[in-house]
Amino acid sequence: MTAEIGVADVPALLAGAEFYSTSAAGEGIEFAGPWLEDILAHTGPVRLVPAAELPPDTPCAAIGGMGSTTAMAELPPSGDEPVTLARSLAMAGGRRLGAVMPLNAASVNALFPVAAAAVLGLPLIDCDGMGRVFPLIHQTTYELAGLSLSPLAVVSAGHDSLLLDTGSARAEQLARSMAQAAGGWLMCGMYQTRAGRLRDAAIHGSVSRVLEVGRVLCEGGPLDRLLRGLAGAAGASVLGGGRVVEIGPSVRQAGTVYPGNPVGMVVHDLGTGRLIRLEAHNELVLALADGALVAAVPDLLCLLDRGTLRMTGTERLAAGDLVDVLRVPAAPVWHSVPGLALGGPGAFGFPLRHPGEGAR
Amino acid sequence: MTGPGARARRPAEQLTVDELVRYGPLGRAEMLAGENLARQVSQVALVSELDAIRRCGPGTAVVLASGLALGAWAVESALRLAWERGAACLVTPAVTGPTQATAQLARRMRLPLFAVEGDSAPVALDLAAAVASPEAARARLAARCAELFAERSSVRGIVGVINTEVPGVTAALVAPDGHVLAGQSAAVRAEHQVRVGVPGPDGRGWAELVAAMSGAQSQTWAATVRLILRLARAPLATSVARERVEAVHHAERGRAALAAIFAGAAEAAARALPEEAPEIPEPVLGWRVDGRHVAVFLRTGAALDVAAATPGVVSAWQEALPDLPLVPWESGWASWWSGGEIEVDQVAAALGRALARMRPPVPLSGGVGRAAYGAGGLRESLSQAVLAAGVTVREAPGTVRSFDELGYRVMLAALSGPDLVASARVVLADLLSAPDGPVLVATLAAVLDCGGSTSQAASRLGVHRNTVLGRVERIRARGVDPDRPDQRLALHLACYALLPEL
């Protein structure tokens, strides 16, 4: 099946991107909507193709941004960055790119690959490597499948360009310090591969799913219809809903490798009286109901504001707000042993077993 | 400390969480949730990973090691696991950051939650030591109580020590008639009790110390409570003896002083000299005898030994009105309000409130004299109060009447002795033999009080005038004529003598 993403699809793409950002990394990504609309208005729609429909030896690479979305909003990408990235990658790989795929189809990174495909005139592969947002660029199914992250091509807000050839974790570390120095964010090209290898290395249909979820959200309430729609489109289930009774910095001493600050919040479930504690570190990491772990990374946790019927996050909430806590199961590959090691509670510094994990 | 698999002690010997708070290591911890403190602690487990809680037995005091200082989520996870395992309580290092919501969760689970500053391992060690030898911990409690008993000088203070220091125990000191002398009356109605007799100053049983124990019962704990009650006996007897001796001594000094004041005033009056306050008693007792006074007199209906009732009456009085003296005087007790602007109505109202609040050993009612100046005036006011009190004796306990309110009727009250009552019954025998005799006597009294006006009498009795007219007809039909001037005084007196009897 071949589809297209045009200007008219951007609002749904943005809403879906916000949903999959697990309520924290989606803060302040609205700027990317008009930015992408502007690009698509010039280039025309982007072709969205499943990996299986491309010739297996098509050279492709993942595109995504890293750093602060706030910095991106203040100093948005010019739109020329993908050209620089494509040149760097072609230089390193010896072949021109035939298609691009998202690093992760969530938050701003659901929009950047569309812009890249549009600017480069290439098809966008309907897949991604996370199915959500993770804080580190190597927390991907590409990595799990053994694809090499480097060479990592980066370009900054000031059009500084760099090609890093090193190990995945180290590439992450170096790129992050560069992002700090170069204006807060970087656009990256990585995981250079051929379309045929994506069959086992990617989460397929991610971009279509983001669009579908986005359309449900754009259609709006009433609440129960919206929740039914999200259950159908994303498999979202409601853990509980009620008033935020506590929100503030968490004294958790863990995960120092991650950017951002730990935040804790508690929702008093109106239906059952349970206290749902959510721990966030950029993204919502886990949920405990009355002290029992009910959801954790790599599964998604999102917050739906009952007042506005929009996705919301820890930075926009205050004690007293009414929210619904949603859980969306991650792609099955994340529930494997290596998947949980890379993206499970332990990877975030929580000595807990994932609720889906059998007793070991 | 014992490991999760260690042998659980016999329930009878186990300490409760409450005990560990009151006189154990948990006293130093901050209690974030204090529900269900009566749980017995069978063992202590210091856990450094959450999964270890799954291996704890019921009744375990779970202590989180500092390595688990990972945030509120970790405390809540531990709470959940501890609750599932039936733990007795959870102790967490304060740095783990338990929040209001964490405490709320603990309260919902009814699982006591404590936070300790610094390293939690020493707390776990102390807990294990206390749990391992409950006897030692209880002996320390008994020693502490004994020490506090010695420091308290009042009965109330001594019973209070038991109520505040001994966890899960409410105690009361109960008189043989069931009257609670001190402590919490709930103790008397409780199911599980320990009772210990308390001897009075004369060595005979005077009261009983009752302790009610809540929560799970154990023989050793009951023995500890009994030991503590026994330790309280001697201090209680001493304190009671001291209070009684002091009360009697003080009352006698007061009587002597008042007599001296009145004698001095009488002498001064006889010599027609300006009144002088006598020198001896006043500075000692701190009384004011110059200025304006209103005297009051308390008495009781039953014929009784004033001296025997005095300690009880005085202590009840001092509870209600700690600033005013109460002196045994004639057949009752005298006191007085002093002050430049003191009024009879104020005093009567204050005395009424005090009597309602007091719990004297005998029923009391009071009379209030007129306002007067100086020692001589006080004597006069007291005489009036004695007369007014004479009227109240016929009324309900707690009644207060002022001399002014009663007017000359105080005279009638003074005359209503048994002889007069007997004569009145003979004189009014015809009237009393009517089916509604008492009503006719009351109506006759009202008509005479109102100078023969039937309409006034009707409004005083709260009936229609025609009813009064009908009753007067029946009174006349029985041979009593209220209009005969030569009979009126005698009739009026007879009615007054009988009225309180009806």
UniProtKB/TrEMBL annotation, chain A:
One protein family per Pfam: S-Me-THD_C
Q: Where is the S-Me-THD N-terminal domain?
A: 9-165
Q: Which SUPFAM superfamilies match?
A: CV3147-like
What the entry lists under InterPro entries is as follows: S-Me-THD-like_C, S-Me-THD_C_sf, S-Me-THD_N, S-Me-THD_N_sf
Please state every residue range assigned to the domain named S-Me-THD-like C-terminal: 170-352
Q: Which domain of life is it from?
A: Bacteria
Q: What is this protein called?
A: DUF917 domain-containing protein
Q: Which organism is it from?
A: Thermocatellispora tengchongensis
From TrEMBL, chain B:
- Chain ranges of the PucR C-terminal helix-turn-helix domain: 440-496
Check the UniProt entry and state the signal peptide residues, or none. Answer: none
Looking at the record, the residues that make up the CdaR GGDEF-like domain are 285-389
Name the UniProt record assigns to this protein: PucR family transcriptional regulator
Q: Which family does it belong to?
A: Belongs to the CdaR family.
The organism named in the record is: Thermocatellispora tengchongensis
Any one Pfam family here would be GGDEF_2
Cited InterPro entries: CdaR-like_regulators (IPR051448), CdaR_GGDEF (IPR041522), PucR_C-HTH_dom (IPR025736), PucR_C-HTH_sf (IPR042070)
